[in-house]
Amino acid sequence: MQTLNQLCRALRRFVLVLGFSSLAATSYTFATETPEQYPTRPIKIIVGFAPGGGSDFIARIVAKKLTEKLGQTVFIENKPGAGGNLGAEIALKAPNDGYTLFLAAASYTVNANLYSLPFDPIKDITPIAVLAAGPFIVSANPKTGFKTLPALVDFAKKNPGKLSYASAGSGSITHVGTEYFLSVADLDVLHVPYKGTSPALTDTVGGQVQMIFGTVASTLPHVSSGKLTALAVTTPTRLAALPNVPTVAESGYPGFDVLVWHGLIGPKGIPAPIVNKINQAIRESLSDEQTTAQFASDGLTARPDTPEQFASLIAEEIKRWGKLIKERNITLR
């Protein structure tokens, strides 16, 4: 019996030593990789929405280009849920070694003011780069007879509460972006939330609601076919695909600017050399004519900002939308 007990103790010691040796070997492998050597293995970009959407489209274009630039496979992992918050939480709780990144959309800065998040949307991130940005197209059902934004505004002022607008859901970026315009123009227009952009557009085209702030990719086909009338775009410059459609700023609201943007962030504390290497690869990718053309097909413009500029954008938009959400009493219901 004593011999058996001694044998068991010896075996346990062996297993422990083997385990510690394996851990040490693993730690050594990661410890010996310097930021200058990055990357030495595949990189994951988490997208907080389902495959096939706008965020997924942008992520896959960028992943392909980064794979070419960095010499390691960059792949997409879709983690939809909670308006993109699920994917953000997973990415931001990953090791800060640059191998797990998150594709943040403009809705990230809205969610920061509407959800109780398990992370700090500013302090717990490393901003890396803005990828692309574009406008909303302010559109109306043709049966309304509105040909310009001032015409819609004039009617809404004379008939408060008579018009309605569709959004992709309460608390969505389309909801908040529209409310921002209504606040600036001092209009009373009824909000009709839908479960996604597709049904919101369907009912706007059908005339159940009269107007919508829609992304270029989802709205332009309906404008081109005559099913919707484009009244304005929300960026400071006109959209190349709709050169005759003025901006909201040109339509009587100087300084008006609402962007639909996407960018890459990571967990807090990614070493600066790694951040700079990814940012540089993105900037080179965004200067590529093929990438520019792909973005343009979705109504987007490449926007190769620095990490510092992206950090400022996130902070400013969280503050901006937070103020609006309080003033307009916007909720998720």
TrEMBL record:
Signal peptide stretch: 1-31
Swiss-Prot/TrEMBL keywords: Receptor, Signal
Gene3D superfamilies xrefs: Bordetella uptake gene, domain 1, Periplasmic binding protein-like II
InterPro entries assigned to the protein according to its UniProt record, in alphabetical order: BUG (IPR005064), Bug_dom1 (IPR042100)
Family statement drawn from the similarity comment of this UniProt entry: Belongs to the UPF0065 (bug) family.
Protein name from the UniProt record: Tripartite-type tricarboxylate transporter receptor subunit TctC
Organism: Jezberella montanilacus
Highest classification ranks of the organism: Bacteria, Pseudomonadati, Pseudomonadota, Betaproteobacteria, Burkholderiales
